[in-house]
Amino acid sequence: MKWACPLFLLLAALCGPAHADAPGGLSPVTMGAEAQRNEGLVVVTARAGTLSRVLPALARVVPDESRVVPIQPVGSGKVLRVHVMAGQHVARDAVLVDYLDHSLHVARLQAVQMRAALDAALAARDEAYVAWRRARDLSGSTVSEGETRRRLAVLQEARNTVLARQADVGTMTHRFHEEFNSVTERSGQGEDETSSLLAPVEGTVQSVGVAVGGDINAGQTAAMLVDLSRVWIVSDVPPQDAARLVQGGAQTTILGTRRLASRIGTIDGMASPATGLVRVISTVPNPDGALRPGMMLETELETDDRATGIVVPSEAVQQVEGRDVVFVRAGTDSAGATIFRPVPVTVGLESGGGTVILSGLSTGQPVAAQGSFALKSILLLAGLGGD
Question: Which one in 170, 229, 275, 350 has a CA-CA gap of 20 to 30 Å to 129?
């Protein structure tokens, strides 16, 4: 191969090979400190480890279904105001929709009637009690014992009626406190019959199902709110690839310059009849909201194909004369230049920017990673190898 780049010619002249042969018949090369800085040469320590082969896939961002909240009114009526639109971010307790709550009007009328019924029951109980006390005091003289027992029965019935009316009032009070006023709804006070639907969490409005002037009914979904502080990364992969994935395995999703780490949470047991693909889901934190539903991203899924050995960055491995070689730092020469010894190695699995070395290298050895191509070029230019 012919090299026309002056930089490589300069490196060959300034650095050059050392004289003692390295294993495999390849001679060491030297490189001075300045040349190393110019080439951005980085030396790392080889370490023992295990790598898993990754499956590259295209993924989409989907809201976490467990964090999608339907906003439904308790009452029915007419929509007065819609304060939000789809895609809008809202704070907790933000007002989403105002509506004229006919059910609130009916409930307030019922509450008044129930209170009046309770007051009447209390008055009837008090009268029954006075009548029974009088009969008890006069029993055997002007009032018969039978009449006394009858009045006691009337008193007991009046007491039961009071308990029933109190239960009715309590139920209606509960409705006002827990239904018409809750984490998702606030009703008007006094004569105001306006109810407001609220956001129970901070999130994003996914959809709005009502319009100003339209009817709104109890249980109808007026809006869908999604909490996007955590989202799903969904990949659709062929069944044969899904069989190689491991639930709980590592997953890396690429978002620009960021690599988002997660764990494979769900692997569907069957392929989709529509696509023939298997859905794979992982959950990713999204505190800054950078992951938006509908985004398409590249992701890497860990498989059960693993290899154990000495792990180095993949860029540390170079091809010289058809062999895989790494450059091991072997000290300095008399001029202070660093000596790098090319060592033939047996390469195993390559994944995620790392490579497993099965033989030829030991744990703890310093190897050239970034910039090792410059060492290979020096070796080739010196005529001691071919590519």
Answer: 170
Cα separations in angstroms, 300 against 50, 253, 261, 293, 315: 17, 6, 10, 19, 19
The topology (CATH level 3) of 6-51+307-381 is: 2.40.420
Name the residue ranges covered by the structural domains of the chain. Answer: 6-51+307-381, 55-66+228-306, 67-225
Q: Which DSSP state fits 354?
A: E
Nearest residue to 15 via CA among 275, 302, 378: 378
List the structure tokens of 369: 């990673």
Say yes or no: domain 55-66+228-306 is CATH 1.20.1740.10.
no
pLDDT tens-digit map of 26-46: 889 999 999 999 999 999 999
Q: Within 13 Å, how many C-alpha atoms sit on residue 72's CB side?
A: 10
Q: Tell me which DSSP letter residue 348 carries.
A: E
Cα separation of 343 and 327, whole Å?
6
DSSP letter string, 290-340: -S-TT-EEEEEEEEEEEEEEEEEEGGG-EEETTEEEEEEEEEE-TTSPEEE
Domain 67-225 has CATH 2.40.50.100: yes
Distance between alpha carbon 2 and the CA centroid of its chain, in Å?
52
Task: Of 310, 352, 350, give the one whose Cα is nearest residue 328.
Answer: 310
253 close to 259: Cβ distance less than 8 angstroms = yes
- The predicted-structure confidence for 59-100, as pLDDT tens digits, reads as follows 999 999 889 999 999 889 999 999 999 989 999 999 999 999
Closest CA to 285 of 229, 201, 202: 229
Residue 239 neighbours by CB distance under 10 Å:
12
Whether the per-residue pLDDT at 346 is higher than 60: the answer is yes
pTM (predicted TM-score)? 0.59
3-state helix, strand, coil in the chain (%, to 5): 30, 40, 30
Q: How many CB atoms lie within 10 A of CB 372?
A: 25
